Automatic annotation (TrEMBL):
One of its GO terms (molecular function) is threonine synthase activity. Pathway: Amino-acid biosynthesis. This is Threonine synthase. It is an enzyme of class 4 (lyase). PROSITE patterns: DEHYDRATASE_SER_THR (PS00165). Pfam families: THR4_C (PF24857), Thr_synth_N (PF14821). The keyword Coiled coil does not apply. Keywords: Amino-acid biosynthesis, Lyase, Pyridoxal phosphate.
């Protein structure tokens, strides 16, 4: 299997190359040239297997023999052994036919752990094989940095540098990053805001001279391996609820579109899915595009569901490539127009998307209302991201007969602000994290100057 760019001009890559590469050289994102397809028998045979075994079977075709089976199986098994629930991503029934898929049992209590625990191990495997080392740089407004750090802390051939805005992330978020004291983990508090931190990371990728030839790797959600790892829980949830004999629907709290796109891949690989619902917060570009064909940027709004605060939804490009019948030139033209001015999709590809996808946007006041309402009805305290999904599933689901699975993307203890605003006393951290506020921290504080940051990285990488 080869991987090709959504804009049609970059060279095709192997799995190993695509794991080590972020953006394609033509500005596009990599997708598989062909998708594996599971027969009904193959899907039926997955029911009842362990999560790691399902993960191995679902991802094996994408790896394309570039890692031998025994090694790949052990990477997968190690990655999911870090989760505190034996089912890794368990289903919980809320009412007659509505389920939560709990994605928050990983080391940092949110769904990004599912992909990043595997991605770190894949990167380390390929780097070791090549006898290379690499540096990871990333900027975080609080939440995703910790998942990347946890995914890389045991990697011998990787050093990770995560920049966060000094004094502008919550104490829990900061400590989830800064209490990881591994030798290859470097947290940098930038005396500036998130945009300053992100701009310095972007500039470092654009001109990597300061690393004297060492590879710089991005672990953001455009990396194909993250999508691949996320396909697994759709298949696992689907077969647990009766697929392939029975259709299932999914409702996904969405921002960069990586999570729900992985669900769409599972569908294209043979999982019978009736409907995907895209839930957004007030940053609703996905909902505006799907509902009104308004494909335009809007100013960023800080919401109670901060991990979904985005202006542009980067992985949507992968769905566009599919909707435009893999016409890379058409995708490139649309996205170029989108960067300049408000635009719209062509009618035919939009109509195709609307056959499978519905969408709904949920504002902050409604998030609080939903947290209270869901608790009254089900006894569950939802985190604010999951709350957007709960409401969207209720409002736009196609039918009641098909099981609806809402993805619970974060643990409520991680987003205490919203939970407290909704009138609750807060939710305790899980026991394996209850000493987080007493653990030793380590981080550097640097001015928002590119030269200072790059010197720090060059001096500290191993
Ligand atoms: C990242 C994140 C999302 C959004 O996922 P995308 O793949 O960007 O659509 C939703 N909820 C939480 C808690 C997240 O961390």
């Amino acid at each position: 299997m080869r991987y090709i760019s959504t804009r049609g001009k970059a060279p095709a890559l192997s799995f190993e190359e695509v794991v080590l590469t972020g953006l394609a050289s033509d500005g596009g994102l990599y997708v598989p040239e062909t998708l594996p397809r599971f027969s009904a028998d193959e899907l039926s045979a997955m029911a009842g297997l362990s999560y790691a075994e399902i993960a191995f079977r679902v991802m094996r075709p994408f790896v394309n023999g570039e890692i031998d089976d025994a090694t790949f199986k052990s990477l997968v098994t190690d990655a999911y052994a870090t989760f505190s629930h034996d089912a890794v991503v368990p289903l919980k029934q809320l009412d007659a036919n509505h389920f939560l898929l709990e994605q928050f049992h990983g080391p940092t209590l949110a769904f990004k752990d599912v992909a990043l625990q595997l991605l770190g191990r894949l990167l380390d495997h390929f780097l070791k094989k090549r006898g290379e080392r690499a540096v990871i740089m990333g900027a975080t407004s609080g939440d995703t940095g910790s998942a990347a750090i946890e995914g890389c802390r045991h990697c011998d051939n990787l050093d990770i540098f995560i920049l966060h805005p000094h004094n502008r992330v919550s104490e829990v978020q900061r400590r989830q990053m800064t209490t990881v004291l591994a030798d290859n983990v470097f947290n940098v508090a930038i005396e500036g805001n998130f945009d300053d931190a992100q701009a310095m990371v972007k500039a470092s990728f654009a001109d990597q001279g300061f690393l004297n030839g060492t590879r710089l790797v991005a672990v953001n959600s455009i990396n194909w391996a993250r999508i691949m790892a996320q396909i697994v829980y759709y298949v696992a949830a689907g077969v647990a609820l009766g697929a392939p004999k029975r259709e299932v629907s999914f409702c996904v709290p969405s921002a960069n579109f990586g999570n729900v796109f992985a669900g769409y891949m599972a569908y294209k690989m043979g999982l019978p899915v009736k409907q995907f619902i895209i839930a957004t917060n007030a940053n609703d570009i996905l909902h505006r595009t799907l509902a009104d064909n308004d494909f335009s940027k809007k100013e960023l709004e800080a919401t109670l569901a901060p991990s979904m605060d985005i202006v542009v939804s980067s992985n949507f490009e992968r769905l566009l490539f599919d909707a435009y019948e893999r016409d890379g030139a058409a995708v490139a033209a649309l996205l170029e127009r989108f960067q300049r001015e408000p635009t719209a999709m062509a009618e035919a590809p939009l109509a195709k998307l609307r056959e499978k996808f519905a969408s709904f946007s949920v504002d902050d006041a409604t998030i609080l209302e939903v947290i209270r309402e869901a608790h009254r009805r089900t006894g569950e305290i939802l985190d604010p991201h999951t709350a957007t999904g709960y409401r969207a599933a209720e409002r736009v689901r196609a039918d009641q007969a098909t099981p609806m699975v809402t993805l619970a993307t974060a643990h409520p203890a991680k987003f205490a602000e919203a939970v407290v605003k909704a009138g609750f006393q807060g939710v305790p951290l899980p026991t394996h994290m209850d000493d987080l506020l007493d653990r030793e921290e380590r981080y550097a504080v640097l001015p928002a100057e590119l030269a200072a940051v790059q010197r720090f990285v060059a001096d500290n990488r191993r």
